[in-house]
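REQUEST
  id: r-88c1
  op: predict_structure
  target: Probable malate:quinone oxidoreductase
  payload:
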Amino acid sequence: MDNRQEQTDVILIGAGIMSATLGSILKELAPGWNIKVFEKLAKTGEESSNEWNNAGTGHAALCELNYTSEKPDGSIDISKAIRINEQFQISRQFWSYLVKKSLIKNPQEFIMPLPHMSLVQGGRNVEFLKKRFDAMTKNPLFEGMEFSDNPEKLEKWIPLIMEGRTSTDPIAATKIDSGTDVNFGALTRILFDHLKNQNVHVKYKHGVEDINRKKDGSWEVKVQNMESGKTERHNAKFVFIGGGGGSLHLLQKSGIPEGKGIGGFPVSGLFMVCNNPEVVEKHHAKVYGKAPVGAPPMSVPHLDTRYINNKKSLLFGPFAGFSPKFLKNGSMFDLITSVKPNNVLTMLAAGVKEMSLTKYLIGQVMLSKEKRMESLREFIPEAKSEDWELVVAGQRVQVIKDTEAGGKGTLQFGTEVVSASDGSIAALLGASPGASTAVHVMLEVIKRCFPDEINAWEPKIKEMVPSYGLSLAENPKLFKEIHTSTAKALGLSERGPVYS
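RESPONSE
  id: r-88c1
  status: 200
  body:
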């Protein structure tokens, strides 16, 4: 064991999109700070951030129906969609800043223009989609959205989906051309290349084993060098736990009171991938449908054009599954070892409340390939089994906690930051919309954890994110300026329409 304690300003745990984003922002705000990153795998962005492990939608709430809900009076609540869209615009602004500063050279390596569509069937669903369209198009964030229930028009928009469709049920879709496909694996690698050029020390095959607070308020991080077998000890004034599903265990090890009473529920995902180029070329959009009754929000079916390894791909899913692992490369004991005296009642309450989810997941695990093909054929009636193969996506760990609204053991479906009262340590838990809103989330971490610096940093933050502190939905002129300038910086306007 190496008992020497290496001092640093900031330690980032996990080499995924969150640490990449936080590190990149901090290096702009405090270039002289010393930052170290510990990643237990051999490469950057191999878990939740990897392009094969997440949907890569560039979640802007343009097509995800679960971000808009129907109120009891029949009106549509689009407040969550507005919030998520604004957060994605913050990410676009920061990426554009990095491009303008030549810190990112080729944005087309991680972001491509792609229409986002919502698709529904059945009279009741078509009525809902039309009301949603009417509500959203009154807001400047969703300018350019189109609605159609005309089969001939839909054949032009989504030929692969309409081909061979015999159902007489009403069908409708919305389409907006200003959507994107984001390869978060590629973006993570680009940002870490940039960080290494800024003298950030990234240590791969280094697994964090323990985190302890010292008497002076700093943190000692115990790290296992998985190649040499030696244990290292590193000290930092600030620690960020961005280890995806692995964050909960490390938060528990920190012992901060804010982390007590929180549990995690792992959900795995599977996608069908098309390996027939002729089929892939017939579809050019991200098309989101409605989740089946009883299915969790993370299981909304979607047929996505994706750009992976400079190649156009077609993915359908996700099919949910269950594994007790908290990471794809995790342990079968992850779930059981996350149960502690301070969260056991919360976890048990969730187990009782979420019996329908458990049954749903068991049913999903038991599906044969042909059963999955039946789900796919609801989108592509003429889909052939030989054109599609199954790919295991990443693990998500949904947060379980006690809430006023939901009571004891409530399952959360968003992204959450848990931080110590003094701001010296923060952990990111949860899942979608996650990566798409990384810049917003990390700016919130900075605001919460560096209260003494935030006022001095604000002018620089506004240089990186011009809309910082403002609502774009309430400032349509500013939104249009920013949306147009970011499209230009990221090359989106050259590769496709910004507005239809």
